[in-house]
């Protein structure tokens, strides 16, 4: 189209405005107020608070806007404006890379085709039970009592340590908030190699054999999926696996027989805070890729109907739906039935669908959805509904749901009587056992918590075949001086349920935060909370559960007695010379392999205390 006169005048005017704007350097503070504070001054949400951003290098903040999670938010900003806001918020100077002395003296990774000892991906087995066998764990109950810190590794410039390590025969592979993937030597914590991904990597990476070598498989928080050579860290291939711009990958991939299965979630629920955002058009999906070259084998959306316009909001913004039902956790594989199971999150907009807050059973070969079992219907919710925001994008009264996503994987177990069950824990505080052989029919249900937006079962349960262990977040916020802070005496609790019928075997009450200061100086949003939101890990005789107060505890699986307790909320001297401290424990659970335990501490989200450390423990003789 030819440029019309009015457009031309407009253009000249814009150019003049741009030139005069350039003469006046943009104010980072003004841009922050206008473009960032609406989200980052909301304490206790999914969003890191301003105080956490202020601890990041300015270059890292810039990277988040240019190529990371803030890309679409920053899209309308000019380069100088991005630089101004990054400088205003962050720490000046170059972004730190690993120190040369942090690398191993001899850098060689040799992996066996079938590893002797491993915790590969989200769970050691395809059933997602997060149970490590006695042989692979190499830790008895009495050795757990004697666990001592062996080394600590600092994640430079990070506010969270949130990627669960994958461990294969003495090698650790782990992502990070900076998007740096690390290969470390498990005995000493020295670096074998690093790879810089384009965005933060929060999931546990999965390793698959590939020819004579191995592939490290993972996705980032902007929706790109990668395959690296495990031996060298060299990129083999990468691709975007979902065209929606708000897609994010956070559920760990599951590898099976030469293919990798990936669940796709999104940021769109958060975008809806903006009244001008046309909410919503993302649908969750599962994608099957060939490990060798990344070729797509199949892709199945969790919602059949494509989103379409459904009207206007009170402020005149387009409404779209159906949307949501993202997948936030690792797919579970059932080799016997040749099925794959995923759990889904809520819908973001009306109309609500029958496949949100559901467990889906897919045919492993074709991806066809063979059955779905929804546990909460009518759950349309987005961040525009959060208290204090009450935005026009929140679905109307009557169409709005309670935000009861499934955030964790369904666990496939065999009861002592030999019956297969799929067990799933929800943010509602409910645990469900479904029959995978009967289209997900409910076998038993049990309540383990109160539930809520950040309540109930968050990152996942564990099962040793006798019991299923379910800890709850049920984190609670209150307002002090108009800042939302975590309550030190609400949330948490660990319940053991009999796998066979869901009855309670025992309950371990949450431990109070005690005399720990409620509010860190200068970080009013980082309170203390006993919430047990992090994923659990089981080995024979023990279940591990971390809490937002920074403690990692080992409970006897027989009666729930605490047999080991380590407080991570302190500073650590690290093998890589990076200053590091522990904080809230949230997200992934510990990984136990061949007599060692590895865990992250620090989760600067939901009001939790930031931290940036990977810890390795071994029993002291
Ligand atoms: C619509 C809400 C929203 C707005 C507006 C917003 N952010 Fe964010 N921001 C988020 C969310 C959600 C995350 C969490 C991402 C994650 O979990 O890693 C985040 C994370 C970040 C991070 C951490 C990224 C990392 O590498 O860990 C930075 C830095 C950041 N935002 C900067 C900004 C700046 C600068 C602005 C203003 C130009 C801004 N944000 C505006 C929602 C928002």
Would you give an account of this structure?
By secondary structure, the chain is mostly beta strands. Among the domains are: 29-92; 130-164 and 459-621, Lipocalin (Beta Barrel), CATH 2.40.128; 241-409, Thrombin, subunit H (Beta Barrel). The protein contains nine helices and 40 strands. The protein has a five-stranded antiparallel sheet, with no helix packed on it. Strands 11, 12, 13, 14 and 15 form a five-stranded antiparallel sheet that branches. A four-stranded antiparallel sheet has the order 2-40-39-38. A hairpin with a 2-residue loop joins strand 32 and strand 33 (542-546). The radius of gyration is 24 Å and the shape is globular. It starts with a helix and ends with a strand. Mean pLDDT is 91; it is low at 1-22 and 519-525. Bound molecules: heme C (HEC). Heme C binds at residues 35-36, 38-40, 46-48, 53, 56, 60-61, 64-65, 68-70, 73-74, 85, 177, 200, 221, 270-271, 273-274.
Write the SSE topology.
Layout: H1 5-23, H2 28-40, H3 50-53, H4 58-67, H5 71-74, H6 79-89, E1 118-119, H7 134-137, H8 141-145, E2 147-154, E3 166-168, E4 171-174, E5 180-185, E6 191-196, E7 206-210, E8 213-219, E9 224-229, E10 235-240, E11 247-248, E12 254-256, E13 259-266, H9 268-271, E14 285-290, E15 296-301, E16 308-312, E17 318-321, E18 332-334, E19 339-343, E20 358-363, E21 369-374, E22 411-414, E23 420-425, E24 430-435, E25 441-447, E26 462-463, E27 467-471, E28 477-480, E29 483-486, E30 494-498, E31 504-508, E32 537-539, E33 542-546, E34 551-556, E35 562-567, E36 571-572, E37 580-581, E38 591-593, E39 596-601, E40 613-619
Antiparallel strand pairs: 1-3, 2-40, 3-4, 4-5, 5-6, 7-8, 8-9, 9-10, 11-13, 12-13, 13-14, 14-15, 16-17, 18-19, 19-20, 20-21, 22-23, 23-24, 24-25, 26-27, 27-30, 28-29, 30-31, 32-33, 33-34, 34-35, 36-37, 38-39, 39-40
Helix pairs in contact: 2-6, 4-6
Bound molecules: heme C.
């Amino acid at each position: 189209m030819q440029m019309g006169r009015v457009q031309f005048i407009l253009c000249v005017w814009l150019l003049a405005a741009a030139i005069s704007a350039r003469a006046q350097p943009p104010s980072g503070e003004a841009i922050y107020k206008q473009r960032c504070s609406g989200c980052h001054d909301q304490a206790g949400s999914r969003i890191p608070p301003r105080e956490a951003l202020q601890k990041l290098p300015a270059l890292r903040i810039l990277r988040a806007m240019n190529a990371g999670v803030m890309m679409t938010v920053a899209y309308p900003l000019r380069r100088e404006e991005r630089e101004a806001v990054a400088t205003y918020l962050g720490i000046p100077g170059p972004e730190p890379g690993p120190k040369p002395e942090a690398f191993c003296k001899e850098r060689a990774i040799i992996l066996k085709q079938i590893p002797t000892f491993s915790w590969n991906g989200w769970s050691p087995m395809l059933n997602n039970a997060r149970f490590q066998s006695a042989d692979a764990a190499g830790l008895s109950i009495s050795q757990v009592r004697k666990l001592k810190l062996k080394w600590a590794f600092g994640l430079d410039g990070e506010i969270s340590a949130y990627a669960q390590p994958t461990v294969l025969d003495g090698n650790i592979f782990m992502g990070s908030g900076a998007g740096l993937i690390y290969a470390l030597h498990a005995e000493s914590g020295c670096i074998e190699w690093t790879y810089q991904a384009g965005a933060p990597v929060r999931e546990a990476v999965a390793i698959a054999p590939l020819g004579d070598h191995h592939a490290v498989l993972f996705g980032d928080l902007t929706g790109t999926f990668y395959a690296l050579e495990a031996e060298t860290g060299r990129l083999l291939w990468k691709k975007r696996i979902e065209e929606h711009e708000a897609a994010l990958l956070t559920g760990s991939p599951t590898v099976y027989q030469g293919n990798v299965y990936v669940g796709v979630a999104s940021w769109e629920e958060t975008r809806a805070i903006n009244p001008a955002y046309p909410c919503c058009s993302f649908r969750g999906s599962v994608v099957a890729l060939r490990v060798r070259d990344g070729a797509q084998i199949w892709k199945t959306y969790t919602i059949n109907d494509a989103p379409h316009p459904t009207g206007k909001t009170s402020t005149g913004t387009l409404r779209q739906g159906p949307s949501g039902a993202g997948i936030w956790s690792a797919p579970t594989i059932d080799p016997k039935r040749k099925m794959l199971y995923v759990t889904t999150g809520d819908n973001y907009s009306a109309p609500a669908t029958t496949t949100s807050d559901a467990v889906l059973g897919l045919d492993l070969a074709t991806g066809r959805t063979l059955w779905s079992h929804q546990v909460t219907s009518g759950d349309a919710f987005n961040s525009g509904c959060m208290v204090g925001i009450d935005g026009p994008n929140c679905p109307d009264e009557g169409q709005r749901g309670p935000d009861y996503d499934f955030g964790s994987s369904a666990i496939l177990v065999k009861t002592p009587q030999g019956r297969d069950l799929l067990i799933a824990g929800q943010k509602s505080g409910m645990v469900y056992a479904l029959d995978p052989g009967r289209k997900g029919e409910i076998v038993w249900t049990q309540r383990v918590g109160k539930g809520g937006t950040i309540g109930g079962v968050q990152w996942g349960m564990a099962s040793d075949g006798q019991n299923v262990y379910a800890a709850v977040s049920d984190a609670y916020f209150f307002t002090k001086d108009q800042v939302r802070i975590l309550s030190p005496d609400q949330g948490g609790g660990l319940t053991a349920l009999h796998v066979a019928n869901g009855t309670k075997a025992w309950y371990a009450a949450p431990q109070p935060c005690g005399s720990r200061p409620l509010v860190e100086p200068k970080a009013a949003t980082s309170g203390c909370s006993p919430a047990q939101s992090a994923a659990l890990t089981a080995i024979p005789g023990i279940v591990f559960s971390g809490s937002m107060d920074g403690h990692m505890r080992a409970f006897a699986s027989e009666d729930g007695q605490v047999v080991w307790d380590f407080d991570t909320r302190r500073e650590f001297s690290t093998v890589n010379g990076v200053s590091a401290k522990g904080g809230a424990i949230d997200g992934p659970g510990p990984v136990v392999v061949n007599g060692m335990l590895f865990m992250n501490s620090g989760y600067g989200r939901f009001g939790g205390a930031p931290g940036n450390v990977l810890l390795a423990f071994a029993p002291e003789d």
